[in-house]
Amino acid sequence: MNARMSRSYRWLAPAAAVVAALLLWQLVTAGGLFRPDQFPTMVDTLLALGKAVATPAYWISIGSTVQAWFLGMVIASVLAITIGSALAFNDFAFRSAASVIEIFKAIPAIAILPLVILVLGSTLPMKVFLISFGVFWPLVIQVIYGVRSMDPVVLDTARALGVRGVRRFVVVTIPSASPYIATGLRIASASALILAVVSELVGGAAGIGRNILQAQNGGMTAYPVMYAYLLTAGLLGIVLTGAFFLLERNVMHWHESQRNIRSNAEGALK
Amino acid sequence: MSQTTLPTVAPERADGPSIGETTDLLVTDRRTRTPGSVLRRVLIAVWLPIVLLVLWWFLSASSTSPFFPPLSRILEEWWNQWVIGDAKFQLASSLRNLLFGYVGGAAIGLVFGTLLWRFPPMRRVSNPIVYFLYVLPAPALLPAMIALFGIGELRQIALISFGAIWPTLLNTLDGMRGIDQVKFDTARAMKLSPPRVLFSLVLPGAGPQIAAGLRASLQTSIILMVVTEMVAAKEGIGYFILQAQTVFAVTTMWTGILTLAIIGTVANYLFVLIERFVLRWYYRSRALGNS
Hints:
The complex is a heterodimer of chains A (270) and B (291).
Chain A: H1 2-30, H2 42-53, H3 56-88, H4 91-106, H5 113-120, H6 124-148, H7 152-160, H8 165-201, H9 208-217, H10 223-269
Chain B: H1 19-22, H2 35-61, H3 71-84, H4 87-118, H5 120-135, H6 142-149, H7 153-177, H8 181-189, H9 194-230, H10 237-246, H11 250-278, H12 280-290
């Protein structure tokens, strides 16, 4: 009984906190701490969100943001996984490339945004290029470390069994490195969304970011709409990173826990 | 086994070694550090960047593309703009905002991360809100910040701080939760006072992961610095780059990109150096453990 109570408490308390936060929002805005031209009330915002949800424009803007996010993620992860695992197998190649990767990783991706806009315009390819560029470098580092952390015994076993080439890549390399790749993908997912929003906000490509800026330019009456899109951006963030978080936890569970159980058992025998 | 049913907010730390590790040019294991091996490491690390730069120089030398001017012209223009010219004053404003925003946000993250660790009910209650704010793409808040703070520097610093809070907060919390319970029992047996426990057990114990959070916060801060300067600003390096783009001064724009790349790289290396110094006990113990 106690366990069930504490479990429902675990769900109830955060839910109550969300409600309390929303009420607090309503209180400070309706109470006059913020002027309506600074911060719209919670009720107005939710009404605006409700109205926006019924329009196709709302879903189109989400669609274009998610589309750029998805394409950028796919391109970056395919490149990072192939290039990263190729580099990881050769010590010289890895050490040589490391400094280049570090330099590119340190360049904030938005630095090249104006250049990309010039070359590609305010288009989907512009967003996808920016996202892939920004996400690729941290991801490739994760892949390299994932592959390099591979148990040498696993590699030897694969060699003894005659598993090589593409088959070894798919059956041995990727699963061994998967916890690192999963972590890298989760972080990449968050940065990809940020870059998508920036490319819409600064670069003027279609999507949630542009709608937020347009609502802000639309003056005070459009502010609830702006916050409605802001809420949408946050919810999208929860969905997109939450998916990778779950993936990561499941992959990690399979991988790490197995090893820990085994090593604990070995430790007990000694 | 899991303590919360909600997804616990995910730390920014990439599991396993991150950038600190590939910069082992700076710190190598002392026993293997002979002059020859250091020279070889340096050579292996720098040959590819040099080759790429030389390639860029020669491939772009006769470039007539309006978007990719010759590297020689970019460097010349860079010297004129950033060393002789007035562009360096843009840098001062950018770096000031970055510094205030980053330090403010990181401090808030550190303090609240510690508080959330110390008071688990608070942690459970605030979990969904913290998670929402963490995954909310911070640049999307820019128009709201303009509405709240106007278009001055205050909203730039506010947005940079806001973005810098979450990676530090989550990593602080996660690092502190990961400390071995036995250590707290020992501290209790030694009757250490709470401040003493905080400064000699909790903060050092979570140190490596706090550092990872601080580094992620720094990267977010730099991105937000540029974004805030690209929208409704009148100075700063982001403004400089975007301004050059709108008047189609492509070479000038390239010099801004180059400067930003230098800022990012220098900030990163400074961070790694400071981290290596502050956490030298940790890296030393890890190097011993690995050998």
